[in-house]
Amino acid sequence: MQTLAKSKSQPSFLDAITGPSEVKKLKPAQLVELAREIRQEIIFNLNKTGGHLASNLGVVEITLALHHVFETPKDCILWDVGHQAYIHKMLTGRRNQFATLRQYQGLSGFISPTESEHDAFVAGHSSTSVSLAVGMAIAKDHLKEDRKIIALIGDGGLTGGMALEALNHLGHIQKNVLIILNDNDMSISENVGGYSQYMKRIKETYFYKDIKKKIDWIEDKLDMVPLDPKLMNLITSVKQVAKDKLENPGIVFEKLGINYSGPIDGHDVEAVIDALNKVKDLEAPHILHLITRKGKGFTPAEEDSIKYHGVKAHSLEPTLKEKIEAKDPDSNTNKGLTYSHVFTDALLDCAELEPNMVAITPATAEGSGLVKFGKAYPERFFDVAICEQHAVTMAAGMAKMGLKPVVSIYSTFLQRAMDQVIHDVAIMNLPVIFGIDRGGLVEDGETHQGQFDLAFLRSIPNFTVLAPKDATELRQMVYSALRNLSGPVAIRFPREKAEDNYLTDGVACDFKEFDYKTWEIIKSGKSNKVILACGAMLAPALEAARELESKIEGGVSVVNARSIKPLDIKMLESFVSEHGQDLHLITVEEGTSSGGFGSAVLEWASELNNSNQRPRVSVMGLPDRFIQHGDRNLLLQEVGLTAKSIIEKISPA
């Protein structure tokens, strides 16, 4: 399937699907054709909107089988992560909205109960589905309801500690939960860890059934031939060894008290339906193990499922060709380089100077750009799978023993390790650097917005919290933090393209140590208006200040407030000394205004001894609500974090 065009020359099964009930009417051969049409539809639409490609192509048959056997919304299907539920959305009445996928006020790229009654629970983070299923199964029994609870989780999600905790509990309480294990060897990046290796060993049984058939056939033939007893005993012994080694792959699950069946081909829709029918009425907890291929049906995505995990709009056109020319990751220009790449490059250069520095990531090596570091320093790179809590506590142990660990983690995923950040790192004031990627708004919506990190990290004792204004400052922050590391330091940066060109003829600027706890006056004004801007918000702040030159006599000052914690009290006091109570401070942050940087400035102002010198403080940040999905620039307009909004705050019309 290498075309993005959709043919209408033949009747379409997909056109006839208005809800799950139509799926139940189709025969296996028709479902195979429907699967083909769905894959074509996904590729066609995602080329327009962008989205998660490979994961959805991999679960087409599983989704069809689930809706063929079960009945939503009565039966609850819990999608772990949720970014692989596009087919589910198509089959539950939302196909005509796919042109708006991940667009502002359009169809969410994840599971959302506010969108449809067929979405049983919100899903955006990994390893949650089994815990949800256990809770729902307990509620179902208590309320005496007749429904089935199904959790669909990937082998990557199963590496998460929360999923393993839920399996342990489920085996103990023996509730009626069906777990569909979608095994494709992948998370965002490749799966790692002992559990992943066990899953690979399980898949050996996928071939054992075929081997067993062949051995049985040979044995039947040999029964007709007189053989020496010793030879017959040898054949029997070999067969028994193979059986003992391969025939009971689900022993770990069964020891936990959860029945197991599989693995079977997850792309054989008839086989999946048969397997579901066999287990759907069981009262005990059960795991059905399905083997799938991420990117199934689209050769480029099959060959490089990491690259095609998520795609941008109009990025699939080159895949009309069989081979794709990948961009050179070591290109001598930073045109299009993200802050993630700048951060990784800084780590690579610092690694040469600091032999005790190590890098840790919880299954986001590809997304955070750390793959390059892992190749250069494999013995100093640790991908711990989807285990954010373990990543942080492991870093604490490393720091206690004299290493300088850097934890590269998305803002939204750091939320999952808050206890470890406080209990294991901050209390002992350990020298751990947190490189917090995706700080601020992203297109994926409520479950992925990096809107809370500034506020929750600012509240933790011993933490230094930083937000660089551009690529060069990020690079120098990493270096300076490593050189002066005496406690936990969080460096927070957006998903966006890097602001400045920190490369000259392909060579990064020299490291320069600086005091990142001090602020920087970027633009000096003589008026009483001072904008304190954090990180990515410096650009709209400067734009606003330039436009206000003609409106406000003396102009507006703009400060690069790169240290959210601690505040640069000396600079704040200098502004108070100059303007007194006439001073108007405008704080601008791409983080929640509740408890964030602006709150810190308000707290400082409230504690001034001379109340007559207390300045006016206007806080601009994200509102106290969850922010929907959509283009970042549109979202910034919607929440009022643009140059225009800053101008209106300072100089209302």
Throw out a few tags for this protein.
653 residues; Rossmann fold; alpha/beta; 5-stranded parallel sheet; elongated; 7-stranded mixed sheet
Protein architecture, described:
49% of the residues are buried. About 3% of the residues have low confidence. With 653 residues, this protein is of the alpha/beta class. The chain is 40% helix and 15% strand. Strands 9-8-10-11-13-12-19 form a 7-stranded mixed sheet, sandwiched between helices. Strands 2-3-4-6-5 form a 5-stranded parallel sheet, sandwiched between helices. The longest helix is centred in the first third of the chain and has 22 residues. It has 4 domains: 249 residues, 3-Layer(aba) Sandwich (Rossmann fold); 44 residues; 170 residues, Rossmann fold, CATH 3.40.50.970; 131 residues, Rossmann fold, CATH 3.40.50. Helix 22 links the parallel strand 17 and strand 18.
Topology summary:
Layout: H1 20-25, H2 28-49, E1 51-52, H3 54-57, H4 60-69, E2 76-79, H5 86-94, H6 129-142, E3 149-154, H7 161-173, E4 177-183, H8 194-202, H9 205-223, H10 229-246, H11 251-255, E5 259-265, H12 269-279, E6 286-291, H13 299-303, E7 310-311, H14 339-353, E8 357-361, H15 365-368, H16 371-376, E9 381-383, H17 388-400, E10 404-410, H18 411-414, H19 418-426, E11 433-437, H20 453-458, E12 464-466, H21 471-483, E13 489-492, E14 503-504, E15 507-508, E16 520-523, E17 529-533, H22 538-547, E18 557-560, E19 563-565, H23 569-579, E20 584-592, H24 597-606, E21 616-622, H25 632-639, H26 643-650
Parallel strand pairs: 2-3, 3-4, 4-6, 5-6, 8-9, 8-10, 10-11, 11-13, 12-13, 17-18, 17-20, 20-21
Antiparallel strand pairs: 1-7, 12-19, 14-15, 16-18
Helix pairs in contact: 4-12, 6-7, 9-10, 14-21, 17-19, 22-26
